[in-house]
Amino acid sequence: MPSSSPPATQDRRNRDRVRDNQRRSRARKREYIQELEQRLRLAEQRGVQASLELQAAARQVAEENKKLRLLLRLHGVSDRSIDAYLAGESRIGERGGRHGRGPPAPPAPPAPAPKPAAAQRLERLLRPETCPVTLAAASTPSSDQGDKNNCAMAADLISTMTGVNPHEVRASLGCVPAADCHVDDARIGSAIERFTESGAVT
C-alpha cells in the first residue's frame, strides 16, 4: 500500500502550523482588546469620581465663602470693601509673580481704639465659652437696611458661634420650616446679642 509522499506531509504540517499561529494571534488580540477596554472603563470611572469630588469641594468652598462674608458683615465690613480687598490682593499676587517677589511689608497699624460693648460681645462669640440655652421662639422686627441673608445659613452660623441649637436659632429668627426665606443683618445681630446675653446669665 503506497504511503504519503514526504512533500505532501510537510505541506500539511505547514498549513496546520499556520492555522495554529493565526488562532493564537487572534486570541492574543482579543485579550489585548479586552485589557484596553477594561483600562478605559477604569479611567472613565476615576474621571467621574474626580469630577464629583471637585464639584463637592467647589460647593463647600462657595458655602464657606458665603458664611465668611456674612460674618464680616456682622463685624461691619461691607461687601464692597470685601470685593475691593480681594481685587487688591489679586493684583498684588500678579505683580509679585511677575517680579519674582512680593511687595514690601506694610507699616505697622496704629494701636486700636477701645471697642464698643457690642463688638466685644461678638468677639466673645468666636471663643467656645458659651453653652447651649433654651429660648422661646421670639420675633424681632426686621430692618429695611442691610443685606438679606439665607435664613438657614445665618442660623447655622449663629449656632456655630454660640453653641445654641440650630432649631432654636431658626425659630428666633422667624424662619419658616422647609422654606427658602431670608433675614437681614439687623435681625441677625439682635439674635446674636440675645443669645450672648442669655449665655452670660447662665
From TrEMBL:
Alphabetical list of CDD domains matching this protein: bZIP_YAP
Domain of life (superkingdom): Eukaryota
Basic and acidic residues bias locations: 10-23
Signal peptide extent: none
Region listing for Disordered, in residue ranges: 1-30, 92-118
Coiled coil: none
Comp. bias (Pro residues): 103-115
Listed name of the protein: BZIP domain-containing protein
Organism: Thermothelomyces thermophilus (strain ATCC 42464 / BCRC 31852 / DSM 1799)
Lineage of the species this protein comes from: Eukaryota, Fungi, Dikarya, Ascomycota, Pezizomycotina
